[in-house]
Every structure is written in C-alpha cells, then in structure tokens.
Design goal:
The protein has two domains: about 5-250 and about 460-480, Aldehyde Dehydrogenase, Chain A, domain 1, CATH 3.40.605.10; about 255-440, Aldehyde Dehydrogenase, Chain A, domain 2 (3-Layer(aba) Sandwich). Helices cover about 35% and strands about 20% of the residues. The chain has helices at about 40-60, 65-80, 80-95, 95-115, 155-165, 180-195, 210-215, 230-240, 265-275, 295-310, 330-345, 380-385, 400-410, 425-430; strands at about 5-10, 10-15, 20-25, 30-40, 125, 135-140, 145-150, 170-175, 200-205, 225, 245-250, 255-260, 285-295, 350, 355, 365-370, 370-375, 390-395, 410-415, 415-420, 435-440, 455, 475-485. The strands form seven sheets. It has a seven-stranded mixed beta sheet with strand order 14-17-18-13-12-20-21, sandwiched between helices.
Length: about 500
C-alpha cells in the first residue's frame, strides 16, 4: 500500500492538494514508491502565507537567543535521526549513503551555527558627528520568506535557507522540489518537535508552475530564496522585480579544475573523480571541465579514464556503490542529448561512457555511465552549458595564463579549483579566477557552512548562502540615532568646527 503524505499549513497536517497528487519514486528502482504527496496551488499558498504572518509577529518578539535554543534542539534531533534521514534521502533522490549522510550533516552543522548567531546578530555602534548623540544599526526580520529548493541536496539546502530565516525572526513558506518531498516532511517534523511555532513554518509541496508562481505573485511574501537553474532564476528575478520583492538566487555552474604541470597528480586525480562523478555530477559545483597543462595532459587523461571506468554504479543503498542514478527520466534524456551534441562537435572525442545503463540491476532505474570527452575546445556547447550529469570535458592548455583565461570563459562563476605546488600561481589564481569559490589543491565540491556560498555572473544575483553574511539576506537594516543633547542638532549643518 502506498504511503500518503500531507502538506503542513496553518499549524496542521493537511490531506490532499488542490492540484492533485505527486507520486514520489526511487530513481534507482522505479518499482519502489516512496509515497504519494499532495500537489498544492494558490489556495494552499494563500493559507500558508496567512498562517506565517499571524505567527511571525510573536516570533519576531521572541528573544533571538531563545530562537537559537530551538535551532540547537533541531540540530540535536537531526543527529539522532541522521541515518534514518540519509536512507530515506537515498531512496528518494538516489545519491549514495556516504553522500546523504553528509547532506544531513550539513543540516546539523547549519543548525548549530545559526543557533550561535542567536546570541550575536551583530549590528554596529558608530561615533556621531554631533555631541551628545548616539548612533547604531540593528537587524530586523525581513518578514515572510518563500523557500524554493532543489532535489539534489534535499536536507542541506532547505537548512541553509530555513535556519537563518528563523533565527532572524521570519516566517517561512517552504516549497520543496517535487522529486524530494519526503525529506522535506522529515525536516518539518524535526522543526516542530524542536519547538518552532507550528503556524510559523508551512510546507507546501507542488510544482513550480502552481506553488512557485503563486509565491512570486503573493503580496504577503517579502522575500524569495531560490536554488535551481539559471533559466528559472531569471523568471523569478523578473517577477520579484515587478513588485520589488527581495530575491536571493543561487543558480547554475560550469565549474573547472585546473591541473598544472607541477601538481600532485595522484591528489588531482582523486579530486577530479570526486568532483566530476560525486552525486552523479548533479551538483551546481560539480567539476564539469578539466583544464590540463599540456605537459601532464596525456598521462592524467589515461589515468582518469582507467579510474573512472572502475566506478561502481548502482543503488545508493548498497554501501559498495560509488555512484547512483540520475534523478529522473527527463534528466537521463538531457544527459544523453548532451552526449549526442558532444559527438557532433568537431574535434570532441568520447573517451569513456556516454551511454545509459539499462541491463540487469539497472533495468528499473535512471543510470548513466561515467563519461569523459577529450579534444574539447572552449566554444563547444559541452564546454559552456551546464549538463548536470556524470559528464566531464577535458581541455588542454599551454600555460597558467591560458588555464585561467579558459576557466573564466563561461557565463557562470560558482566554483573553481587549481592543483599546483607553486605558491605564486595559487595566489594569482585566487585573485584572477572569476568565481564565488576557489579551491587550492581541492576539487570544486566540498563547501563548508561557515563560509559564504554562491557565485558571480549568471550563477547568482549577489546574495550568498551560509556563513555569517547570509543574515544580510534575511534581515533588514535599521539605523538608530539617539540625541540626548536636549536641543535640535542638525547633522551636516551644526557640526562643531575642527580643532
């Protein structure tokens, strides 16, 4: 019997959705149905926003350290349920248990980090130019925050958004990806158990067309936080701009790892394998391009081919599996289409893979083989467009300067990596690479929650997830002046003369 899940709106678990239902399946085994979920629409969004507004006023008056204590409890519960949530997540979206455990761990780390911010939420005190006058800045909640999250990190990314929003005193309306609503239900249950006021947070599963658009058009939502494709992000920015609604966008990437002639090739090889094929390449930070110095390109390419051909593909619930399936049939078609495009581009050569896996244990899943293209040049589509699958393109360069130029030659600017023992090169790379994240002797994946996460160019709109700076997204700044002189003092006019 199929498990029937509910939405959470207005402080209650609600059966059914005005737009029907969503069936959630295991991408490694389509016969394994995780559950049936309500597909919501404008009606449910309206109710969720009204509920969040009602509760947010009281939540904003709750001392921030007390809000932090609730997030600390949420982190503790996540620790207790880590394995249970990881296994559910692997069933739901396919990546291996090693990675889903890490996904939950990011949620734990974010809960504890943001709990600590409840005793800080720093503003500034500054000297005023007039005597007997005090100046300071304080943070105030942004209001009601709509969270639109992707399927590839169904615990970590909602935590990145919801936890800082809550610590800042906001209300939340949460739309998870249609492919991963079960993990979202697990997170909601934990937040409620931890003591978050029930009407403050609302879970509204459904499509982007029905739930997402209703969020963008709702006058009661003050802020939209979105992680997903650049194409959808542009639409969100346009809709939010029409009503001056604040939006935080974290979007696509075409990330590259540079390997210089002086690099530790063993280390660089491990990094390339993890960056390109971890999460089946379904990360916005995945290593989609390898930029190799010509002196090591031949050796490195052959070793990469050998190692990638040995990757064990299968069901992520098997501890021996190293790479799971793609998320769904549409993504499988997208990756296959990019392989076809690559094969038709003049000069590109398929070195490994390039095919769906359909026989035996793969018959009921969306599996694709680790894929490597060589002979790739900058202008090719497979070198410029985000594929979001286990496909890596190799580009060969003559020197450091060409490597940096090649890495920057993309519309995106999220993550980047360089392997070198030359300290001067490393610091020049940090300075010259156009990306929000740069790793030295580390692959393009592996961000930690205490530093800002996000990118430049078409990767985002300037906001950042994680770290202390994310608080700027979820708060409004207020400047406060206190004049205790007992008389009218006019700034810039009645300033004392310099001594």
């Amino acid at each position: 019997m199929v498990t029937k899940y509910k939405a959470f709106i207005g402080g209650e678990w609600v059966e059914g959705g005005s737009m029907g239902t969503i069936v959630n399946i295991n991408p490694a085994d389509t016969k394994d149905i995780i559950g049936e979920f309500p597909s919501c629409g404008k009606e449910e969004v309206d109710a969720a926003v009204a509920s969040a507004h009602e509760a947010q006023k009281k939540w904003a008056l709750t001392p921030a350290p007390k809000r932090g204590e609730i997030l600390k409890r949420a982190g503790d519960i996540l620790v207790e349920k880590k394995e249970e949530l990881a296994r559910l997540m692997t069933r739901e979206m396919g990546k291996i248990l090693l990675e889903t455990r890490g996904d939950v761990q990011e949620g734990i780390d974010t809960a504890y980090y943001m709990a600590g911010e409840g005793r800080r939420l720093f503003g500034e005190t500054v000297p005023c130019e007039l005597p007997d006058k005090f100046g300071m800045s304080i943070r105030q909640p942004a209001g009601i925050c709509a969270m639109i999250t992707p399927w590839n990190f169904p615990m970590a990314i909602p935590a990145w958004k919801i936890f800082p929003a809550l610590i800042c005193g906001n209300g939340v309306v949460f739309k998870p990806a249609s492919d991963t609503p079960a993990t979202a239900v697990g997170l909601m249950e934990i937040l409620l158990e931890a003591g978050v006021p029930p009407k403050l947070i609302n879970l509204v599963p459904g499509s982007g067309k029905n739930v997402g658009m209703a969020m963008l058009e709702h006058a009661g939502i003050n802020l939209v936080s979105f992680t997903g494709s650049t194409q959808v992000g542009r639409t969100i920015a346009e809709r939010c701009g029409a009503t001056l609604k604040r939006c935080s966008l974290e979007m696509g990437g075409k990330n590259a790892q540079i390997v210089m002639d002086d690099a530790d090739l063993n280390l660089a090889l491990e990094g390339a394998l993890w960056g390109a094929f971890g999460t089946t390449g379904q990360r916005c930070t995945a290593t989609s391009r390898l930029i190799l110095h010509k002196a090591i390109a031949g050796e490195f390419t052959e070793r990469l081919k050998e190692k990638a051909s040995q990757i064990r593909v299968g069901n992520g619930l098997d501890e021996n599996t190293q790479m799971g399936p793609l998320i769904n049939g549409d993504q499988l078609k997208t990756v296959a289409e990019y392989v076809r495009i690559g094969l038709e581009e003049d000069g590109a050569q398929l070195l490994l893979g390039g095919n769906s896996l359909t026989d035996g244990p793969y018959a009921c899943g969306f599996f694709f083989s680790p894929t490597i293209f060589t002979g790739v040049r900058r202008h090719m589509r497979i070198a410029r467009e985000e594929i979001f699958g286990p496909v890596v393109s190799i580009l060969v360069v003559k020197d450091f300067e060409e490597a940096i130029e090649t890495l920057n030659d993309t519309e995106y600017g999220l993550s980047s990596s360089i392997y070198t023992h030359d300290l001067n090169r490393a610091f020049k790379a940090v300075r010259d690479i156009e990306a929000g994240i740069t790793y030295i002797n580390v692959p393009t994946i592996g961000a930690e929650i205490q530093l800002p996460f996000g990118g430049v160019k078409n990767t985002g709109n300037g906001h950042r997830e994680s770290g202390q700076v994310v608080l700027d997204t979820y708060t409004e700044w207020k400047s406060v002046y206190v004049d205790y002189s007992g008389k009218l003092q006019r700034a810039q006019i009645d300033c004392p003369l310099s001594m």
